[in-house]
Structure formats: structure tokens, C-alpha cells
Design a protein that fits this description.
single chain, 8 helices, binds adenosine-5'-diphosphate, globular, alpha/beta, binds magnesium ion
Length: about 240
């Protein structure tokens, strides 16, 4: 693929413990283009989170290769992973802190990003004083604050009510368009993947591997209530079930 920010070639990860070893994922090959939005959908336990962690460089492959042409990845972990002992603002500024940006500058940037995701006024709150959707938005503010060229998201809508997840999806699409970044999102809701993605990677389990990669041809902005949308979502559902 031309302009790939990420290319995996037969990427494989095996957990080893004393008694047995098992594949989290096996022989996974795909590329992600610049500014492309790709979703990975598949059942729980298929190795999706482990795959994202390998791409982010938190763990290393057992075999195969990951070619990384991106400069600055940001990852939103499953369950958002913000720190309970930091205020929303300090959480949003955390990536910038890690980059060594001076305090005033990083707080200014973090405030701007919080505003962009609808969190103005909540800077001094701690995570336990925020709703689930607001905490997820703090995680998004932290990710975009470093202005990444690749955004990795692990189940960003899990455990959110449907209204909150609808508004979050809208925000994520806007940010994706504004920042022109590549996005790789793990998800298990087919309709969300169809609504957001250029391509959808369908994973199956034991071992986690790619069953199919589907290009979503629907024009944007996508009408989730149109007949065409329903047909695409239905086709993907059929692929997962068979
Ligand atoms: P998903 O995100 O698709 O639900 P995961 O990547 O979390 O899947 O897990 C993939 C598989 O690897 C699961 O069967 C899980 O039980 C197993 N697994 C996850 N972490 C470990 C670990 N640290 N040691 C051994 N097995 C693990
Ligand atoms: Mg997972």
C-alpha cells in the first residue's frame, strides 16, 4: 500500500506461561493508509487489545513484523485509563507532560483540547466526579493534545449509554477530519464500525486472526437510518456469524 502509516506482516503474539502457550493473535497482515479510518471488530478474547498494544509498542511480537511509518501515536486504552489522582486538566495534559512541555504551555493546550471535546469548565474535577462519557472525553483530549498522526482506540464506546456514544462518535469523526490523522479503532459494535470507518477488519478467535477486510463504500456523512447503511451492516453481521 502506498502511504501506509502502519503495515503488519504475519504479526503473531503468543502468551507463554509455565504450562502452556496460546496465541493472542496469529498471522495478522494489513496496512493502514495515511488519514484512513479502520475498525477492527470481533468477539471478545480474539486478541484485539493485545494487537493494539503490540502496535503501540507496549509489547513485542513473537513473530512477524510491524512497519511503523507514523511519527506520533496516541492510544486510548480500553476502560480509558485516565489517572484517578489527577484532575481532568492534568490528565488531559499528561501526554504533553511526558513530552517535556513546560507547565503553562501544556495546561493552555490541554484547556483548548478539553474545550474541543466539550469539557470546558470541568478542568478541576477528578475522574470520580465525572460521568463515564466525560471520562472517555478526557482520554480523547489527552490523546489529541499531543497532535498524533495515528490514533489507536480500544473500545471507546464500551459501557456508554447510546446517547453518549452517539455524541462521542460525532466528536471523533470531527476530530479525525480536523486533525487528518489515521485511526485504528477496536470495537465490537458493527453499526459503529460501519458508521465511522473506511475499512472494517473482521477478526475471528482462537487464534485471533483476520477473517475478512471490507471496504465501506457509503458516502459521508453517513445516514445510519438509510437502507444502504442497513444493508452494509447486515452483510457484515452475516460475515461474523458464519
Ligand atoms: P480482546 O481484546 O479481543 O477481547 P485480548 O487481546 O484482551 O482480546 O485477549 C486475547 C486472548 O489472550 C484472550 O484469550 C485472553 O484470555 C488472553 N490473554 C490476555 N492477556 C493475557 C496474559 N497476560 N497472559 C495470558 N493470556 C492472556
Ligand atoms: Mg479488548
Amino acid at each position: 500500500m502506498k502511504n501506509a502509516v502502519l503495515s503488519l506482516e504475519r504479526a503473531t503474539f503468543r502468551f507463554k506461561d509455565a504450562k502452556k502457550s496460546s496465541y493472542a493473535f496469529k498471522d495478522v497482515s494489513f496496512s493502514l493508509a495515511e488519514k484512513e479510518f479502520v475498525s477492527i471488530i470481533g468477539p471478545s478474547g480474539a486478541g484485539k487489545s493485545t494487537l493494539l498494544r503490540a502496535i503501540a509498542g507496549v509489547i513485542f511480537l513473537t513473530s512477524g513484523t510491524v512497519v511503523k511509518n507514523f511519527k506520533k501515536p496516541a492510544m486510548i486504552f480500553q476502560g480509558h485509563g485516565i489517572f484517578p489522582w489527577l484532575t481532568a486538566l492534568d490528565n488531559a495534559a499528561f501526554g504533553l507532560f511526558m513530552e517535556g512541555m513546560p507547565k503553562q504551555a501544556r495546561q493552555k493546550r490541554a484547556r483548548e483540547k478539553m474545550k474541543e471535546v466539550g469539557l470546558a469548565g470541568l478542568e478541576e474535577r477528578y475522574p470520580h466526579q465525572l460521568s463515564g462519557g466525560q471520562r472517555q472525553r478526557v482520554a480523547i483530549a489527552r490523546a489529541i493534545a499531543i497532535e498524533p498522526d495515528l490514533l489507536l482506540m480500544d473500545e471507546p464506546f464500551a459501557s456508554l449509554d447510546s446517547l453518549t456514544s452517539t455524541s462521542l462518535k460525532k466528536d471523533i469523526l470531527e476530530l479525525w477530519e480536523r486533525y487528518k490523522m489515521s485511526v485504528l479503532m477496536v470495537n465490537h459494535i458493527i453499526a459503529d464500525a460501519v458508521e465511522l470507518s473506511d475499512r472494517v477488519i473482521i477478526f475471528s478467535k482462537e487464534p485471533g486472526t483476520i477473517r475478512k477486510i471490507e471496504t465501506i463504500e457509503l458516502p459521508r456523512p453517513r445516514d445510519t437510518r438509510s437502507k444502504d447503511f442497513f444493508l452494509v451492516a447486515d452483510r457484515l453481521t452475516g460475515m461474523i456469524e458464519n
